[in-house]
Amino acid sequence: MLDSYDRKILALLQRNAEMPVAEIAAEIGLTSTPCWRRIRKLEERGYFKRRVALLDEAKLNVGVSVFMAIRTNQHSREWSSAFVKAAEEIPEIVDIFRLAGEIDYMLRVVVPDIATFDRVYQRLIQKVEIHDVSSMFAMETIKSSTELPLDYA
After folding, report:
1. For the segment 102-126, what is each residue's pLDDT rounded down to a tens digit?
2. Cα Rg of the chain, angstroms
3. Beta strands in 29-77 (DSSP E)
C-alpha cells in the first residue's frame, strides 16, 4: 500500500520523470536519501513501467489523430492474435484497446493527413480480415494526459 510520500513522489515523477531526487525530496518534505530509497522501492515493486519522453505530434508531422472502431465477426484466439500482431507492426497505430460492447477494438492512429491514414488502413486490412471499420477524426484535443489518478493506490 502506498503512503502519502509515495503518492507525492509518483505524482511529481508523472509530470517530470527527470526531476532530480533532491528537488523531489524538498517538494515532499524528506531528505534526499530516504526519498531516493522510496523511489527505488517503487521501481522494484513495479510502479514504473518505463520512463519516456513525450514528443510533440505537430513538430513530428503526425498531428492528425484518427480513432478506428473495429468490429469483427471472428472471435477466435487465432484471429485475435493475427489482428494484434498486424496492428502492432504498423507504427502509426499508437494505441490498441480491446473493448466490451458493440465495438471489439478501438485503435488510435497518428498521421499527417487523411491520405496517409488511408494507406495505414489499407496496410491493416491487407494483413487481417475485418468485418466493419468506422473511423473518426479528432478535430481538437481537449485533454490528453499520461498522468494516472493516484487516489486508488
Report:
1. 999 999 999 999 999 999 999 999 9
2. 20
3. 64-71
